[in-house]
């Protein structure tokens, strides 16, 4: 039984954690979905634990699939997960005390299930046994690595002890990894901040930050068998600016690369979110800045006490890219936003409007500090233009790991982008016309154009009327029967999924025609958990006059439940729920509404049951 | 201005006896639907007048779908109601609106604009 928003977490709670969002400088996905629909998330569960969590119900509930073996380190863990097209998951857990990368993968049993298995090797000391733990990576506290996967192999990219960029090829099913191929950068690599993406042809694209007089954001392509190619500078930080600790790289179905990062002016304390696209495999880049929404301000990460936006990007098979970032809203509450970068031809990209995610599930005063995209059930290819297919996991709460023990912890939830950022409008999207100003030589004429009879509008009051309408009104007056109708409006500020999510009903008396359609003796509900369970089988056909529009409002209440206006009609001692309302027209004139009336009983509770589109 | 818009339901022959029509309302329509409303023009001048009727306004998409007729049979983008004697009311002018499939679904407006001419005056 689920009754509160806490029933749809991606993980229930993670204490003292950098968790899902802040677990890695490479802020790409550590949530992946296998071909059978199972979800796996690799999270830094606390400062000394990393866990692989598993969900078999689209992310609504999670169980631990594997926990890190290390429990005494004071350095911490980070975790990343990635997925190749064949399905295996590879998760890396970094033990920063011993500087080893432990790899796990999902072993397919050949039928339909996976189990999480430890890979046959550990990348010890990041391929360099001669160095001490603290010098293995450039930033001992934030060892940087990134993982990218294609159908054939896995690329692990990291900064080695000599501050070189290193790439190894690994497969969880073999007993060894390749020797590292290294690139000696022109300048020091800053903060081990790396993000990678690969294709199926053995090409690995890497973006990273170098420290020169000014910070440089650079790209280099690594080719399997060919090593590193030329480096290209994507952008140079402004004078006194630094490129902040997160960046994220993705490739879309058109082959375009897009990277998003933070450019922080430390003196002015302003942070600019930038993105750059390349249509020639990283040689040339088109750099753009996001304009901050009026009233919004820079988010200050409680973990690192720095201005940051935690950008995260995903590339779609079609339609371009989508990325998320964090900003303080006009009430100084950190919130996470999404924007799409759409294309139809792979060469011209258009930036969409800023949309807030998670606003229906999270109270307005609670921080939402980052998001990750992951692929929903049943979809092989993501289309950025369809918010039905884009799912995000987001983090609620700071997860401040600088304290010994977070009192509140952080919660992880998930939703489709359409849930709050791009909500589905259940009536036709209305455009706009200009309003004319009448003068002394003109007569003003009003029109209203509706998309079709499926709209949730009052056709009678909007003038879809005529002689036929009047005839049916006359008919109702002659043979109709007055019935008592109750309308229950959903309460946006309620967290519940039952009758209490509605206020007191509005009572209406109206003429109606009431016909039995099917009636059978209640049938035993064989699957019910009590022997007295039964299913009502009493359906009536109800006709309502053309001027009585049983409109419905739809809200997702703060408990995360989609609630609609409920209409009940009282007849002969029973209540019937009005459903499947269909307006009937003759020559585009509204004549009557035809509804099904389902008797309300133990087997049908109109206030809590799942709403089907056909029942509106 | 020496004319007035009058409801086509009028049975009063003198323009001055009729209340000025302030607006028309097509109400709700579906794309490809068509509706026709009519109105009359009352000549408040003391000379014979001709009245050119055309749709105008800010919404070109709507205006393109409006036509007029003097016989409710043949429709044109504009019509001229001629020979209206001083103080008299014209025959009904029909206005038909047929929103195209794919029209923006919203409420909107257009204007029925009337230019008045002396009888015999060139309209060019």
Provide structural commentary.
The complex is a heterodimer of chains A (616) and B (124). Chain A has 616 residues and is mainly beta. Helix content of chain A is 3%, strand content 47%. Chain A is built from 3 helices and 40 strands. In chain A, the strands form 10 sheets. Chain A has a 6-stranded antiparallel barrel with strand order 33-34-35-40-39-38. In chain A, strands 24, 25, 26, 27 and 28 form a 5-stranded antiparallel β-sheet that branches. Chain A has a 4-stranded antiparallel β-sheet with strand order 1-31-30-29. The longest helix of chain A is centred in the last third of the chain and has 13 residues, at 467-479. The relative contact order of chain A is 0.09. Chain B is mainly beta and 124 residues long. Chain B is built from 1 helix and 8 strands. Chain B starts with a strand and ends in a 6-residue tail after the last strand. The mean pLDDT of chain B is 90. Chain A binds chain B through residues 428-436, 438, 440-453, 457, 459, 462-465, 588, and chain B through 1, 5, 21-31, 33, 37, 39, 56-59, 61-62, 95, 97, 99, 103-116. Strand 32 of chain A pairs antiparallel with strand 8 (107-118) of chain B, so a sheet runs across the interface.
List keywords for this structure.
heterodimer; A: mainly beta; 5-stranded antiparallel sheet; 40 strands; elongated; B: 124 residues; 4-stranded antiparallel sheet; 1 helix; 8 strands; 3% helix
Question: How does the SSE layout of this entry go?
Answer:
The complex is a heterodimer of chains A (616) and B (124).
Chain A: E1 9-14, E2 31-33, E3 39-46, E4 49-55, E5 63-67, E6 77-83, E7 89-95, E8 100-108, E9 114-124, H1 133-136, E10 145-149, E11 154-159, E12 165-170, E13 181-183, E14 188-198, E15 203-211, E16 215-223, E17 227-236, E18 241-251, E19 257-265, E20 270-278, E21 286-289, E22 300-301, E23 306-307, E24 312-315, E25 320-328, E26 334-342, E27 350-351, E28 355-356, E29 368-374, E30 391-396, E31 410-416, H2 417-420, E32 442-449, H3 467-479, E33 481-488, E34 506-524, E35 534-544, E36 554-556, E37 562-564, E38 566-571, E39 574-586, E40 589-599
Antiparallel strand pairs in A: 1-31, 2-3, 3-4, 4-5, 6-7, 7-8, 8-9, 10-11, 11-12, 12-13, 14-15, 15-16, 16-17, 18-19, 19-20, 20-21, 22-23, 24-25, 25-26, 26-27, 26-28, 29-30, 30-31, 33-34, 33-38, 34-35, 35-40, 36-37, 38-39, 39-40
Chain B: E1 3-7, E2 23-29, E3 35-43, E4 49-56, H1 60-63, E5 66-69, E6 78-84, E7 93-97, E8 107-118
Antiparallel strand pairs in B: 1-3, 3-7, 4-6, 4-8, 5-7
């Amino acid at each position: 039984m689920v009754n509160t928003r806490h029933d749809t977490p991606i993980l229930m709670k993670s204490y003292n954690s950098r968790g899902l969002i802040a677990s890695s400088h490479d802020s790409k996905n550590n949530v992946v979905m296998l071909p059978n629909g199972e979800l796996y998330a690799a999270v830094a569960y606390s400062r000394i634990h990393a866990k692989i969590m598993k969900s078999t119900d689209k992310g609504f509930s999670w169980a631990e699939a594997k926990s890190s073996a290390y429990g005494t380190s004071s350095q911490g863990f980070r975790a990343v997960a990635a997925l190749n097209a064949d399905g295996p998951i590879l998760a890396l857990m970094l033990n920063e005390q011993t500087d080893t990368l432990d790899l796990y993968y999902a072993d397919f049993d050949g039928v339909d299930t996976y189990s999480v298995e430890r890979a046959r090797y550990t990348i010890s000391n990041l391929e360099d046994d001669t160095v001490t733990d603290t010098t293995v990576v450039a930033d001992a506290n934030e060892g940087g690595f990134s993982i990218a996967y294609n159908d054939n192999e896995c690329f692990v990219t990291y900064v080695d002890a000599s501050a070189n960029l290193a790439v190894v090829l690994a497969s969880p099913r073999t007993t060894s990894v390749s020797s590292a191929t290294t690139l000696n950068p022109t300048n020091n690599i800053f903060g081990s901040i790396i993000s990678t993406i690969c294709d199926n042809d053995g090409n690995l694209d890497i973006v990273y930050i170098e420290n020169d007089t000014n910070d440089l954001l650079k790209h280099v392509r690594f080719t399997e068998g060919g090593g590193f190619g030329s480096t290209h500078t994507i952008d140079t930080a402004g004078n006194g600016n630094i490129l902040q600790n997160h960046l994220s790289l993705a490739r879309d179905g058109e082959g375009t690369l897009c990277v998003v990062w933070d450019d922080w002016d430390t003196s002015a304390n302003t942070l600019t979110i930038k993105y750059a696209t390349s249509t020639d495999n990283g040689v040339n880049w088109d750099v753009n800045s996001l304009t901050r929404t009026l009233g919004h301000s820079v988010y200050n990460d409680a973990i690192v006490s720095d201005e940051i936006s935690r950008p995260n990007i995903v590339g779609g098979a079609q339609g371009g890219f989508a990325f998320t970032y964090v900003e303080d809203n006009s009430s100084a509450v950190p919130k996470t936003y999404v924007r799409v970068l759409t294309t139809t031809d792979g060469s011209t990209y258009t930036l969409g409007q800023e949309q807030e995610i998670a606003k229906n599930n999270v109270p307005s005063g609670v921080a939402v500090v980052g998001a990750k995209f992951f692929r929903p059930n049943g979809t092989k290819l993501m289309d950025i233009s369809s918010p039905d297919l884009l799912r995000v996991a987001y983090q609620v709460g700071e997860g401040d790991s600088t304290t010994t023990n977070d009192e509140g912890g952080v919660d992880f939830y998930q939703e489709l982008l359409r849930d709050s950022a791009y909500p589905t409008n259940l009536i036709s999207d209305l455009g706009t016309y200009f309003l004319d100003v009448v003068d002394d030589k003109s007569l003003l004429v009003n029109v209203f154009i509706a998309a079709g009879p499926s709209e949730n509008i009052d056709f009678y009051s909007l003038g879809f009327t005529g002689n036929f309408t009047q005839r049916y009104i006359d008919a109702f007056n002659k043979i109709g029967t007055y019935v008592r109708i109750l309308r229950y409006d959903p309460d946006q500020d309620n967290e519940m999924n039952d009758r209490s999510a509605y206020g007191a009903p509005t009572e209406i008396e109206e003429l109606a025609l009431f016909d039995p359609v099917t009636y059978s003796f209640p049938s035993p509900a064989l699957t019910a958990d009590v022997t007295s369970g039964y299913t009502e089988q009493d359906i009536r056909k109800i006709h309502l006059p053309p001027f009585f529009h049983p409109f419905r409002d739809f809200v997702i209440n703060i408990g995360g439940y989609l609630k609609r206006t409920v209409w009940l009609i009282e007849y002969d001692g029973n209540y019937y729920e009005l459903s499947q309302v269909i307006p009937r027209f003759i020559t585009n004139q509204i004549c009557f509404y035809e509804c099904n009336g389902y008797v309300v009983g133990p087997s049908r509770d109109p206030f809590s049951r799942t709403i089907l589109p056909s029942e509106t | 201005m020496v004319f007035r818009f009058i409801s086509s339901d009028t049975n009063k022959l003198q323009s001055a006896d009729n209340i000025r029509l302030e607006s028309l309302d097509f109400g709700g329509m579906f794309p490809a639907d068509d509706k026709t409303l009519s109105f009359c023009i009352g000549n408040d001048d003391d000379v014979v007048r001709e009245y050119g009727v055309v749709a105008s306004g800010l919404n070109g998409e709507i205006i393109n779908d409006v036509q007029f007729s003097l016989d409710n049979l043949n429709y044109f983008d504009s019509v001229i109601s001629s020979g209206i004697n001083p103080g008299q009311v014209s025959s009904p002018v029909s206005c038909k609106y047929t929103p195209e499939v794919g029209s923006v679904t919203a409420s909107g407006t257009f204007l029925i604009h009337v230019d008045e001419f002396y009888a015999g005056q060139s309209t060019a």
